[in-house]
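Q: Given only this backbone (327 positions), what sequence would you predict?
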């Protein structure tokens, strides 16, 4: 453990302070770290990066589905989708609040999103072309998110772990509503089944990319796992996701678009093809199919909301001035 701490803090083992060591021992005992307590600067920065990226993913993730609210096929589907998209906004807010406890404001985080300095999940840079994509997004994207986020309920930072409890409950509803759409489509007309298969074909590999690069290329995993900011490695979670999802695809009568997919008795899991990592890094660099559109929509929403933020500040100032005058 100390060797990992040394790596991230850029200190030699001899330079580790008694605080660094006591902190790691608290983590190893499974204690929660709370906002006002001492923490290494690297721990704080890593949390801000991960929680901030997660919050941004929730907010940007509203866009591909929000795009379908007016085109949902029935009133019931429209209500469900609307509720789901609203939930994502709520998740963003809990997470921005959790990040604020680490000394960074929501405005600062949003500025970093808008300037491209901070990332959001690669998956949201892919388009949602048909109604079947609403099913596949709920089933695969929310399914991958839960796989990653259920263990994060046990993460070492108190406000983050508590935010994850509610988020996970709602994400499981999202996953089920997605699967329910897929069941309807996969057992519908031949055209509907074709749309369901097409959505799976397009979203399978981008969903596998959500877990991040292979462990050998992951920059932060070792340190983040030592600090229990991450509970599992990227490859471990990707494997669990594939093992859970393949039987669900079979139940739908759909084919996972991977000729190398094969049950491996020895490891007790599927062998499967890696996503195209060049494509993943291109998406991270801003060159995915929808990066410009997604970021453009967020920047526009921020700029369009300026009058409202200004009005709120003016109102608060007026109220404070009145209170002083009344004293
Ligand atoms: N999309 C965008 N960037 C990614 C990524 C992805 N799918 N996977 C990895 N990266 C980035 C990392 O942020 C890091 O870049 P940085 O140093 O500039 O920040 C770089 O690639 C190297 O990857 P690492 O494996 O070293 O990075 P992490 O240890 O941070 O692991 C992670 C990546 C697994 C995504 C981790 O950050 C994590 O568990 N995050 C919390 C969960 C989260 O963010 N989920 C978003 C999913 S979408 C969602 O929840 C919305 C819901 O409504 C569906």
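A: Predicted residues:
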């Amino acid at each position: 453990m100390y060797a990992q701490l040394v790596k991230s803090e850029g200190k030699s083992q001899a330079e580790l302070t008694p605080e660094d060591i006591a902190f790691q021992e608290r983590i190893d005992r499974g204690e929660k770290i709370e906002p006002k307590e001492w923490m290494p600067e690297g721990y704080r920065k890593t949390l801000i990066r991960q929680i901030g990226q997660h919050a941004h993913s929730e907010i940007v993730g509203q866009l591909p589905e929000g795009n379908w609210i007016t085109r949902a096929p029935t009133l019931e589907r429209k209500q469900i989708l609307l509720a789901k998209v609203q939930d994502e906004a709520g998740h963003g807010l809990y997470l921005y609040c959790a990040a604020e406890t680490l000394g960074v404001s929501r405005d600062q985080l949003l500025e970093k999103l808008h300037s491209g300095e901070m990332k959001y999940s690669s998956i949201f840079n892919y388009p949602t072309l048909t109604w079947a994509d609403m099913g596949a997004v709920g089933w695969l994207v929310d399914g991958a998110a839960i796989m990653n986020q259920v263990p994060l309920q046990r993460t070492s930072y108190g406000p983050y772990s508590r935010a994850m409890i509610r988020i996970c409950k709602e994400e499981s509803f999202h996953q089920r509503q997605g699967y329910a759409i897929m069941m309807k489509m996969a057992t519908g007309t031949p055209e509907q089944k074709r749309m369901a298969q097409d959505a799976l074909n397009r979203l399978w590999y981008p969903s596998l990319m959500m877990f991040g690069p292979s462990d050998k290329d992951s920059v932060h995993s070792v340190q983040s796992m030592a600090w229990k900011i991450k509970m599992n490695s990227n490859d471990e979670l990707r494997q669990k996701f594939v093992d859970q999802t393949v039987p669900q695809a079979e139940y739908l009568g759909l084919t996972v678009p991977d000729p190398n997919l094969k049950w491996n008795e020895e490891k007790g899991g599927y062998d499967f093809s890696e996503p195209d990592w060049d494509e993943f890094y291109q998406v991270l660099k801003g060159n995915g199919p929808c990066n410009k559109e997604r970021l453009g929509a967020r920047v526009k929403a921020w700029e369009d909301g300026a009058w409202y933020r200004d009005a709120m500040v003016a109102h608060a100032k007026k109220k404070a001035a009145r209170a002083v005058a009344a004293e």
